[in-house]
UniProtKB/TrEMBL annotation:
Similarity annotation: Belongs to the hyi family.
Gene3D superfamilies for the chain: Divalent-metal-dependent TIM barrel enzymes
Active-site residues annotated for this sequence: 137, 234
Name of this chain's protein: TIM barrel protein
Any one biological process term the GO annotation gives: glyoxylate metabolic process
Location of the Xylose isomerase-like TIM barrel domain: 20-249
Organism superkingdom: Bacteria
Protein species of origin: Sulfitobacter geojensis
PANTHER family reported for this sequence: HYDROXYPYRUVATE ISOMERASE-RELATED, ISOMERASE
Pfam families xref list: AP_endonuc_2 (PF01261)
Keywords: Isomerase
Keyword Glycoprotein belongs to the record: no
Molecular function as annotated in GO: hydroxypyruvate isomerase activity
Amino acid sequence: MRPAANLSHLWPELPYLDRFAAAAAAGFEAVEVLFPYDVAAKETQRALIANGQRMILINAPPPNYTGGARGFAAQPERVERFQYDMKRVFRYAEALKVSFVHVMTGVAEGKAAKQTLIDNLKWAAQTAPTGLTLTLEPLNSVAQPGYFLNDYALAAEVIRAVDAPNLGLQYDSYHAQMIHGDAVAVFDQYLPLIRHVQIGDAPDRGAPGTGEVDFDALFARIKASGYAGWISGEYAPNGPTEETLGWMTA
């Protein structure tokens, strides 16, 4: 198992570009940033190179600064905007040599939203640069009220409907626990679809070991499964990040 650091959450007291060095000092060879679009890709590139790191994941689309909902892949009236913004995302992904792009669905409901999401993902999977994997991540309704993709079964149904080799499931222990009450069981059930793993505890998205998730059991399951991808810490450290990194050697 390979640990990675989500720099949108860890070392929150540091400026963005300084977080890369802090992560490198803690032993992280890979990082992810949810929305890197405020900073020129070249600046992020320099930070990655200087610290011997790779960027494994970014979110899509870029933030909506007009006050609209975050993400709109499932909104029928915004298909053109989705395609326009995803092209920008793909340019960033290529510049930063990103492995995964998490496609956010936004606030929506109903059959039309589901079909729109499937159609948009088919287009995105066909348009994505070679070597890039798109992911879907169910988000719980406490953290993201009204978010369309709020259930792992729904995510699995959409992934199977799109039927693209470069689309998979992004598993997050915090959201899995909040949605279904047992993050370990969710990992077991949806393992064949999982391409990327993020960890955080529930209900407060704290560091592993501060809440309800059985991380001893989860890490044992991950090891036994043969999963060879990254495991990224995506949580609120609520104190010095370095004091929360025991999970790296779990």
